[in-house]
């Protein structure tokens, strides 16, 4: 895995989920565990291959991020707008029920934009944006104009399973980066289903 060089975020960093701030540059793999199942399940591993977290989708409207011990650390709720042309909306909920982030897909003629708003634990306000094709990454989260997390899509499917690389700068919230990458994965799956429906309809 080739990791981009992201400069550390200024102290105290972007704290959205306490306990998940990167203390050094970190890299992860996110890969589907099973193929052709109705319930999506992904495994997040360190670059070394050591498991870090599991992502389970018990329903089409909810996704749960758990530690390898089974403790829930994030729940994402999804609202899909049918027949309106408006993109799906995602809300990240902490275990205490508070909202950690809001992400809406902005459907355009040739591409999809990402409108991300976070509710950090600290009172700082940092401009956030998601941009495509920066520093060799498929997409990056920009914090105050600097790349803080990068996502690189796998070359095709590994044994028919989606796989992604996630790279995180020191001071960036790891869980937020993983959540944004999951939304990208979910959007990809939506696009695939829409393409199949259009081809067979």
What secondary-structure arrangement, pairings included, does this model have?
Layout: E1 26-32, E2 41-46, E3 51-59, E4 62-67, E5 72-79, E6 89-93, E7 99-107, E8 112-118, E9 128-134, E10 137-143, E11 146-153, E12 163-168, H1 174-200
Plain-language structure description:
- This protein is mainly β.
- 13% of the residues lie in helices and 42% in strands.
- It has one domain (26-200): LURP1-related (Porin), CATH 2.40.160.
- It has one helix and twelve strands.
- It has a twelve-stranded antiparallel beta sheet, with helices on one face.
- The longest helix is centred in the C-terminal third of the chain and has 27 residues, at 174-200.
- The termini are far apart.
List the total number of helices: 1
By DSSP, the count of extended strands is: 12
Radius of gyration from the alpha-carbon trace, in angstroms: 16 Å
CATH architecture: Beta Barrel
Provide the residue-averaged pLDDT. Answer: 86
Counting copies of identical and different chains, the oligomeric state is single chain
Q: Span between N and C termini?
A: 40 Å
The H-and-E topology, N to C, reads as EEEEEEEEEEEEH
Percent of residues in helices: 10-25%
Low-confidence stretches: none
CATH class: Mainly Beta
The proportion of residues in beta strands is: 35-45%
The 3D shape can be described as globular
**What is the assigned CATH homologous superfamily?**
LURP1-related
CATH fold title:
Porin
What is this entry, summarized?
This protein has one helix spanning 174-200; strands spanning 26-32, 41-46, 51-59, 62-67, 72-79, 89-93, 99-107, 112-118, 128-134, 137-143, 146-153, 163-168.
């Amino acid at each position: 895995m080739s990791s981009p060089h992201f400069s550390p975020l200024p102290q105290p960093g972007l704290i959205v989920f306490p306990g998940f701030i990167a203390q050094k540059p970190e890299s992860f793999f996110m890969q589907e565990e099973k193929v052709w199942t109705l319930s999506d399940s992904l495994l997040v591993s360190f670059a070394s291959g050591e498991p870090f977290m599991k992502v389970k989708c018990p329903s089409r409207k909810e996704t749960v991020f758990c530690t390898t011990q089974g403790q829930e650390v994030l729940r994402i709720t999804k609202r899909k707008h049918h027949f309106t042309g408006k993109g799906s909306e995602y809300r990240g909920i902490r275990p205490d029920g508070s909202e950690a982030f809001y992400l809406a897909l902005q459907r355009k003629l040739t591409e999809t934009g990402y409108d991300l708003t976070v509710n950090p634990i600290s009172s700082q306000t940092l401009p956030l944006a998601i941009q495509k094709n920066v520093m060799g990454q498929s997409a990056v989260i920009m914090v105050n104009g600097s790349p803080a997390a990068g996502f690189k899509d796998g070359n095709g499917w590994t044994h028919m399973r989606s796989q992604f690389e996630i790279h995180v700068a020191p001071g960036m919230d790891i869980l937020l980066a993983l959540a944004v990458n999951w939304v990208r994965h979910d959007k990809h799956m939506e696009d695939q289903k829409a393409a199949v429906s259009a081809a067979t309809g």
